[in-house]
Design a protein that fits this description.
This protein is α/β, with parallel strands linked by helices and 315 residues long. The protein has two domains: 87 residues, Four Helix Bundle (Hemerythrin (Met), subunit A); 195 residues, P-loop containing nucleotide triphosphate hydrolases (Rossmann fold). It is 49% helix and 12% strand. The protein is built from twelve helices and eight strands. It has an eight-stranded mixed sheet, with helices on both faces. Strand 7 and strand 8 form a beta hairpin. The two termini are 17 Å apart.
């Protein structure tokens, strides 16, 4: 039977994810196939496979480990591209499994305060909207705070998501103080007995000192109402930036004490391997990944799905 759903928006999550990681998996598969069809496995081929993995942004440690696993017990034997893919998937899954953790909304900490950070353009505000939709669908009452007060577009975008998800939005005028806005939002969320408060923040990394001061102030004022808040600090990363994501994690972790990651824009041009390098280096939980614009394109992160999609394994 021919597949008539390929043009439909409701592709399965696996199809959307593997489609989004095509750039990484295709470049890996093509390079590996070129290598393994020519000759039997030797040290030189293992080194070439390691180079291919490095170019896929998997990071030096992971690339070396996978290359060693490919070579283990296989020298002077023919190896198929599919065997290499399987080793890649297995080793990548080992790196990702410890960080694939759901974001748990703890009812005892209502309102559960989630501070969302990330550079402008990473998909931060859209991610907040999608998370609001997800949490609302799970039965949580949500409030949004438009704390990226420098960008009028971010404020407007959040208001649209608020309407769409039935979540009240606390917003001020462009340029208003983001810390006092966060304070008012938490006071309102408490008053209305909301389960979750999602706070958007500014994302101008150009001036780290200013950004650091602002985020520290936001945290300081919300702790006046709830000393345990924020209960989660999510860093939203754009998968298309590749190696640059590593420095973003370092900067925001230092500034805001990141507790978990959301990776967006894994839809076509993505450098998906970078998530593996991040997991290996920083060991931060990865809660969600996004492969597109619609609400269902943001889903909880699962190590096996991602590993097999990166390796280009067909299901």
């Amino acid at each position: 039977m021919s597949d008539t759903t390929s043009e439909a928006p409701k592709l399965s999550w696996w199809r959307r994810l593997s489609g989004g990681l095509k750039r990484t998996s295709t470049s890996l598969s093509t390079a590996v196939a070129d290598l393994v069809t020519k000759r039997k496995l030797d040290r030189a081929m293992v080194e070439e496979i390691e180079d291919v993995l490095l170019r896929a942004d998997l990071g030096t440690d992971v690339a070396a480990r996978i290359a060693d696993a490919v070579g283990a017990g296989r020298y002077d034997k023919a190896i198929s591209a599919d065997e290499v893919k399987r080793v890649v998937a297995t080793e990548v899954e080992k790196v990702l499994s410890p960080v694939a953790k759901p974001l748990v909304i703890e009812a005892t900490k209502a309102p559960f305060v989630i501070l969302v950070v990330g550079v402008n353009g990473s998909g931060k505000t859209t991610t907040i909207g999608k998370l609001a939709a997800r949490f609302s669908a799970e039965g949580h009452s949500v409030m949004l705070a438009a704390g990226d007060t420098f960008r009028a577009a971010a404020i407007e975008q959040l208001k649209v998501w608020g309407e769409r998800t039935g979540s009240p939005v606390i917003a001020g005028a462009q340029g208003s103080d983001s810390a006092s806005l966060a304070f008012n939002a938490l006071a309102s969320a408490k008053e209305q007995s909301r389960d979750v408060l999602l706070i958007d923040t500014a994302g101008r990394l150009q001036n780290k000192a200013e950004l650091m001061n602002e985020l520290e102030k936001v945290v300081r004022v919300i702790r006046k109402i709830d000393p345990s808040a924020p209960h989660a600090v999510l860093l939203v990363l754009d998968a298309t930036v590749g190696q640059n994501a590593l420095s973003q994690v370092e900067a925001f972790h230092r500034i805001a004490g990141v507790t978990g990651l959301v990776m967006t824009k894994l839809d076509g041009t993505a450098r998906g391997g970078i998530l593996v390098a991040l997991a290996e280096k920083h060991k931060l939980p990865v809660h969600f990944i996004g492969v597109g614009e619609s609400v269902e394109d943001l889903a909880p992160f699962t190590a096996r799905d991602f590993a097999e999609a990166v390796a280009g394994i067909d299901r």
